[in-house]
Amino acid sequence: MRHLDLSLQLIPERAHATLDGLQKLGLGGVSIGLLLLVVSVMSGSTVQAGTGFGLVVFGALAYIVQTRNDGPPGIKNNFIMFSSIMSRGYLAWMAAVFMTGFYIILYFYPQHLKPLVVLVNPLQVWLSGSSAWDANGNMSQWFLYGFIYTVTILVMGVRALIKYRHSRYQILRTLSVMFFQLAFAFTIPNVLAKFNNGLYFEWANIWPLRYYELFPYSVEGLISSGGLGKFMLFWAVFSILILTPVLTYFFGKRWYCSWVCGCGGLAETLGDPFRQNSDKSLRAWKVERWMIHSVLVLVVVTTGLMWANHLYGGEILGTWSGRFSSGYGFLIHSIFAGVIGTGFYPVMGSRVWCRFGCPMAAVLGILQRFFSRFRITTNGGQCISCGNCSTYCEMGIDVRWYAQRGENIVRASCVGCGMCSAVCPRGVLNLENGPMNNRTGFQV
């Protein structure tokens, strides 16, 4: 027993000893870079902002690339429960405070990020043809937001590619979210805006996730913007009414949540180290179902009221029409999806928004639950009840409960990331698309 106690005391020290020189240098670069970014916010120095951002990116890449030398390919979750940053320790809470604070500043106090806006403005002018400052001198932070978001997914995507390099499914899935974020969520919208009088359209986001996409003023703006605007409107309607049901029928909600969506892309890359922190309790499951479907109802009602008010010449809501939509945008889109959805990764897991709030995930979940061929099949005779599948399910599903009984998993919340199958040491779980009458276990 004394030998066991001694070995447990040494585990955290062994975990830190695995870092090599380049990884330590990379961590040092990230630390100094973050410090310079904080200083640049207070001093207004663009040089410090650029140096800090560069150090963060290259330091992170230096650390990440060296992880390829951690042994043979295969998922390694060694010492996670002894890691302060990955098991809700003090470092995790510090990271949560930092990320939440950054989102609050970005959304509500962007003037403090002026050095970073100045830094990326030349790229914005070249890519989109417009500056971060309008004719009245007002500054927009949203290109900076998209730029940081994209760089984060690309950098942390490299980490995912190295960590899951043994799995063809995980490699393809990671490359997919990196591609859609870089191309369809960032580059293409900005380039099209350059050649179409600033008309910006997010091709990878579908209503109701992009809640204002089918509001009256958005529809009228697209119709009045020529052929491209009309095609964008067609795509917005087609993507939710035709594309979404068809693809979800054949592939489940994973085609969007784990392969296309930018929110899912950030969760699967930046949020991947924290996926084990998702709450697996029955209470969390009940809260999840009420919250996500309530947000879906809210966005449908909001869109309906906006149209009713528009068609009746403002007689229904009057001046409250704009306030109603702005209220939804502030509470759900900014606070829930942005500040909480991302800032709480280190303490609540990587899919806080996707699990509890995303209305698009709710739509896909309903379709997947009742009308999809997708399910995760299990072989109960092979299950050894290790619990890896449940531990690393970012959506809080108790996968082991199904595996022990040999029941197929057909859950509205499952995003088909495939991690439960990847971490299973016995090959019990498999992601499959098959006839609906072969499924069992219809519990949501």
Keyword list:
444 residues, disordered C terminus, disordered N terminus, mainly alpha, single chain, 19 helices, two-stranded antiparallel sheet, 64% helix
Structural overview:
There is one protein chain. This protein has 19 helices and 2 strands. The protein is an all-alpha fold. The longest helix has 30 residues. The N terminus and C terminus are likely disordered.
SSE topology:
Blueprint lengths: L1 H16 L3 H23 L2 H21 L23 H19 L5 H15 L13 H22 L4 H28 L20 H8 L2 H26 L2 H4 L4 H8 L12 H30 L8 H24 L1 H4 L3 H5 L2 H13 L2 E5 L9 H4 L7 H7 L13 H5 L5 E5 L11
Antiparallel strand pairs: 1-2
Helix pairs in contact: 2-3, 3-5, 3-6, 4-13, 6-7, 6-11, 7-11, 8-9, 9-16, 12-13, 12-16
